[in-house]
Amino acid sequence: MKKRSLWLSCIAILSLILVVTGCGGAATTKKSGETNVLYYVNGSLGDKGFVDSAQRGIEKARKELGIKTKTVEGGTNQADWASGLESLISGGKYDLVVVGTSQMVDSVKELSQRYPDVKFIFFDDVVKDSPNVYSMTYSQSDGSFLAGAFAGLVTTSKELKAANPDKVIGFIGGQDIPIINDFKYGYEQGAKYIDPQIQVVASYVGDFVNAPKAKDQALSQYNTQKVDISFNVAAGAGLGLLEASHDVGKYSIGVDSNQNALYPGSVLTSMMKNIDESIFRALSMYKEGKLKFGTHEVLGLKEKGVGLAKDKLYEEHVPKDIQDKMKEIEQKLVNGDIQVKSLLKNNK
Amino acid sequence: MIQAIWEQVLNLTLFVVLLRVTVPILLSALGGMISMVGGVVNIGLEGIMLLSAFSSIAVGAATGSWLLGVVAGVIISILVSMLMGFFSIKLKVDIIIVGFAVNILGSGLTIFLMNKIYGLTGNYSPEQLNRIPSIHIPFIEQIPIIGKLLSGHNLMVWVSIIAVFLCLVLLYRTPHGIHLRAVGESPEAAASLGISVDRMQFIALAWSGLFAGLAGAYLSMGMTSMFVKDMTAGTGFIALAVVMLGGSNPVGILIGSLIFGLGSTITTIVQTIPGNQIPSQFVQMIPYVVTILALIILAIRKKKKQLELTSQSTTQS
C-alpha cells in the first residue's frame, strides 16, 4: 500500500516536471528581430516616484519604439530579488533587462557574468567592469543643489506667508546610505549658496515605507525646530512628510517625480530624477545600436537627467522673484559657473 | 544636545509626540495581552493591523465618515481573528503558524486589493477623507500647561487610555474575565467547571482583533490620512514584545508601551536636533536597545523573586 502511493507520487512529480519544462521550452522560442525588454522592479510599483517614473519610460518606449516589454515586481523581500531576477533571465526570453538602484548592483554584476548574452541597462548606480551592462546615474547632487537653493530662497523669503525668520531648513531621508547622503550634500551646498548661515536639520526614517514615522519627524522639524521647508528623500515614507507640511501649513519639496499636485501650495516643487526620459533615451539608443554597453554615464542638469518640477502649480504658488532666481542658478549650473561637489566617486 | 531634549520635555512637545506614538503600540498590545490571558498567543497582530488600516481608510474614504471607517476596520480585524481561531482551535493548526500566515496575508492582500480597487500598489491617499478627529476641550485649552497636556489629542489617544481601564475591569472584576483567565491558566480545570474552553478562546481572539483593529485604523486615519504598503513597519511585533514585558496586567502593558513610545520619541527628537552629531544608525537602535534592557531587568527581577520564594519555603520547612 505504502509502496504504491510512493510510486504514484513519483509519477505525479515526474509528469509535473515534464509539463513545466515543456512550457519553458515553448516560451523560449521567439521571433528574431523582435526586442524583448524586461523591467525588473526591486520593490513594487505605486510609489508615485522612483519606480513609477521608470515604468513610464518603459511604457513610452513600448508605444513609440515598438518593442515588447514586460514589467515584473519583485516585492519587498530583498532576499527574493536576486533569485527572482535570475529565474526570469535564465529562461532566455529577454534580450535586454532594465533594472536599477544600489541594492541590485552585486546581483546584477554576478548575473551579467553568468549570462553574457543578456544585455542590461542599469540605472541609479554603477555596475563596473561588465561588458554587457550600460549604467547610468543621475547627478542627485546637481538636482539637490537646486532643491537646496530653492529651500534657501523660501526660508529667507519675506513674501511667502509661512516662511519664518529662522534660517532653518529640513531634510528627511529614507536610510543613512551613500546615495541619500549625496542628496543631502547637494542640498546643503545649494542652501549655503543662498545664505551661508542656513542650517539643515536632517533626519532619517530608517526605511522607505514607514509614513507615520516620517510624518512625526516632519512635525517635529516644523513645530519645534522652526523649519519652514523640508525636502523629502524617503520615497513612500516621505509622503508622511508631505502630508505633515500640509497639516501645519508649511512647505515641502517632493522627490523623484512630480509630487507638486499631492498637496498644492504645500509641496512647492519636486526635485525630479527624470528616470523615465533617461530610460527612454537609453532604449532608443539601444534600438539604433548606439548604446555603449560596458560604460557609465552621469546624467546631470545639462543632460536633463535631473531638474525641478515646474508646472502650473509651481508658477501659481512660488513668488516670481524666486522663480527668476532659480532660472539664473540653473543657467549657472549648466554653464559650469557653479560646480556642485558629490560624495560619490562615480559622479564626477 | 541634552539641553535641546530637556527643552522639549519642558515645553511638553515630548509628551505630545509620546502620546501619538504610543497609541498604536498600546492598543495592539492590549489585544495581544487579552488573547495571551485566554491562552492563545496572537502573533498575527501586525497583519491584522495592516488589514484594518487598509479597510478602514477604504471605507472611510468611500462613505466620508471616519466612524464607519473605524467600524469597518474593527469588523474586518475581528473576522480575521475569528478565522485564526477557526484554524487553530477547530482545526488544531499551531497558532504560531496561523499568526505568521496572517502577517504575510496582511501585507500581500492589502497590496493586492489596493491594486484591484484603486489601480495602485504602493500607497493610497484619498483626496477627501475625514480623519479621526482631535478633541479640543474648550476653556482648558487656554490654560498654558494643562491645555497642552489634556487638549488637542486625537480621539484614539483617549480611547486607548480608556481601553486600559476597561481591560483592568474586564479581566479582574467581571465573571467573563475570570473565565478567560481560568481558561488561560488551566484549560482542564476550567473545562471541569463547565466553561467552554473553545468558546472562551474564540472570544479572547475576538478581543485582540478589536484592539488591533482600532490600532490599525488609527495608523491610516488618525496619525496620517493615507495607506502605505507595510506601513505598520513592525509595530505589531513591538506590541508583542510589550505583551511579554507587561504580562497579563493592563497597567504593565501601559508602562511597557510608554517605554517603547519613549524610545521612538527620543529617536525622532534626537534626529531632528540641528547639528546632531550622532550617527543615525545609533539613534535608530534606541527602541530596540530599550527592549533588550527592559527584558534583562524583567528577567533579573523574576529570578530574584523565585530565589526569595525558594528560600522562604526552605526556611519554613
TrEMBL record, chain A:
Residues 1-26 form the signal peptide. The keyword Cell membrane applies. InterPro entries: BMP_lipoprotein, Peripla_BP_I, PnrA-like. PROSITE patterns: PROKAR_LIPOPROTEIN. It comes from the Bacteria. One of its GO terms (cellular component) is plasma membrane. Keywords: Cell membrane, Lipoprotein, Membrane, Signal. Residues 36-332 form the ABC transporter substrate-binding protein PnrA-like domain. This is Basic membrane protein A. The lineage of its organism: Bacteria, Bacillati, Bacillota, Bacilli, Bacillales.
From TrEMBL, chain B:
Keywords: Cell membrane, Membrane, Transmembrane, Transmembrane helix. GO terms for molecular function: transmembrane transporter activity. It is a multi-pass membrane protein. Pfam families: BPD_transp_2. Its main location: membrane. GO terms for cellular component: plasma membrane. It is found in: Cell membrane. This is Nucleoside ABC transporter membrane protein. It comes from Seinonella peptonophila. The lineage of its organism: Bacteria, Bacillati, Bacillota, Bacilli, Bacillales.
